[in-house]
Each structure stands twice: as structure tokens, then as C-alpha cells.
Fold this protein.
Amino acid sequence: MMNKQIAAVEKNRDSILKALDYIWTNPETGYREVKTSKYLQEAFEKLGYEVTLAGDIPGFYTVLDTGRPGPEVLVLGEMDSLICPDHPESDPETGAVHCCGHAAQSAALLGIAAALKEPGMLDELCGRIRLCAVPAEELIEIEYRSELKKQGVIKYFGGKGEFLRRGYFDGVDVALMVHTTVGTKPNGRIGSVGCLAKRVIYKGKASHAGGSPWNGCNALYAAQLGLAAINSIRETFMEKDIIRVHPIITKGGNAVNAIPDEVIIESYVRGRTYEAIEAANAKVNRALVGAALSLGANIDIQDTPGYGPLVNAPAMLEVARDAAAETLPELPPFEYTHVVGSGSTDMGDLSCVMPVVHPYMPGSEGISHGANYRIVNPEWACVGSAKWQVGMITLLLQNGGERAKKIAEEFEPPFASVEEYFKYVDSLECAGDRIAYGENGVASVKL
């Protein structure tokens, strides 16, 4: 039993739950988490940490050095909320609410930071512990993030990928974070799908909808055909690839008495591997372009890298299992399945270059991302999560860091380096009109 680690977290229980309350009642979406970041920054600094701020976006990291050489462990807490205006506790102005569990994760991160500052907590450990409050895990508000990208503020939509690009994780050997979930059992799985983000602009021609509709080209009809075409190819997606395509229309026209000249769709293409994502995306683009061509409209398909497929390192899952047994004896034993989840997380970006684990801690109820989601057991979701993660840190860095060293040495990354990973990811990006109309009814198409 890790009595010392458990006691260190429990000693800071009040500050953990206070943080949960503040962050829950001040929800902010990705790359807007200004209040949350400032709250955590000030709490960390009060504990004696020197933080490195991201600066032009929310978030920060700090490194705790044990003073003994060894591996470096990265521990993450996500800060962003979702948008769900129907949730009874959503922000009345923005519709933002933490119906994703990230408020509990941030509170747990503060609990970890506080526990590690307790006397004697580093005595048996070596190496370094990097604690990171990271923004923008939920892949929403694509238009806003596209504008940040256009301005040069960010390059990647996900906070972890952006922090990785900026070098904030340089020197890290292994990474972990615990996500909040429903139920009563700590659990995990071998991974989850990755995704590609899409912004699709159908371009028609405006005209009076009653007086002269024949002079227009209806972008909404073209978009409807495109969505129907996607539905018509779903049976060609193989089950093993776990493909998910789920578009929404974010702009359907300007006025009811005008033929819509611009309609905007946002979507993901999710899949178990990058190869599967690329293959499915090619089919989706063909369907979308074909619909525009059939009506004489044009289409701008903006494909942007989303998140890499998450693959939890088996040895890191074993660390999670062993730490849960020692720090959470009151809960059912941790179990993980060989199921690949159909949701996506930017923890997948990190798993492409380093061994990671992304398990789940109970404490919430309701439908994730839904209007009835809430934290019902903060003792589990926040305090218990902090205990579990402190336990994982301990197992990784005790005994000369032998466990973390072995995991890092035996890990075979999908990409040889961070640079190679981003080179591939950047190759997925594509934008611009896909149809060029010429004379005599000739059109050329770029899929």
C-alpha cells in the first residue's frame, strides 16, 4: 500500500475540491481557457512551482526535479469544456459546460502537484516529473481555431499536439493522464480512433428564391446531396477500421427568400489507423465533390489534421493496474479491454511518439457530452484520480526509475521522431476549390 502517497493527496483534499468547484462554474472552450489557466497557475505558484506559460494561448507546464538522474514522466490535466446550451449548468452566454469531465482532471492535477510537495514524497524517486495544464482537447469550434491558425497563433487544433510542436514535452520519456468517466470501476482499453477535421464550403449563386430561382445555384441542395452521398457509401467502410463520419451544417443560407450561395459543413472522419482515415476520407471527398458537380456548384474542402489514433502502451496499462491496486483499494480492481474506442483524443498524438496511458476514473454520471452529465462523486473523480496518478508516478520513478526506463527502451513508436510525425500529419492538410469549370461544359475535379 502507498500510505504515504495516499495521505499526501488526502491532506490537500480541500484545495482539490475547491478547484473543481471553480473550474466547473467557469467553463471555457478550447484555446479560451484564460480563467482556468490563471487559477491553476496561481495555485501552482503558491505551492512553490515555477511555471512556463504557453503565453499566447492558455496553459503551462512545470518540471519537478528529484535531484537524482532518471527518466522524465509527463502528467497532463485538460482544461477545456464543451458547448451544451441545454445543460442546466451551462454558461448562459456561451453555452459552455464541463460535460466532459475535464474540470475534475484539472482539479486532480492540482492535487498531484500539491501532494508531490509534501515532505518526503520525492525521497524514493529519481528523474523528473513534468506537470502540464493543457488546453483544447475537445475538437470543436473549427472556424475559431482555423482563424487562430491563420493568424499564426497555433498550428494544430489540439492542445497536446500544439504543445508537442512547441517543444514543451521535449525530454519526456513516458506520459500519463486519467480521464473522468461514469460507473464505479477504474478502467481502460488498448486505444481509440484518430480523426481528421473537415470544413466544407459549398459555393453556389444567389438569386431571388421566388422571382428568379433559375438564375441561382442552390448551395444548400448541393450540400444535401453531399450528405446523402456520404450516407450512401457508409456500407463500404469496413468494421475493423471503426470509421465514423458525422457532419453538421453550421451555415445553411442567409435569407429564406434568397437562393443560398454558401453553405458550410463541419465534420470529422475518424478511424482506427491513419491508413483507414486516409482511405475513408478520399471516399468522403469524392462524394462531396460529386454532389457539387451535379448541380454546377463549387466546393472548398478544408482538411486539417485532427488527432492521432491512441494506442495505450501495454506496459503503461500494467502500471495503471498496479497503481490502482495500491492507491484505490476501496474500488473494484482496474481492468482494461482490447476494445478500441470510437471516440478521439489528442493523447493519440503523443502515443505516436512516446509510450502513454490514458485510463478512466469513475465519479460522474449521465451521458458524456450530454445535458445530464455531472460529477457526482468528486472523491473518486478528483481525489481518487490524484492518488492513482501519484501512484503511477511512484511506480515509474522508484528503484532508479527502472520501470519507466524499461518501458521507454522497449517502446516501438509508430513514427521515429516528433519531426517525422509532424511531417506526415502536415501532409494530410489540404484546402481550396475542388472544381474548375471550363468552356463547353468541361470541368476538372481535384479530389
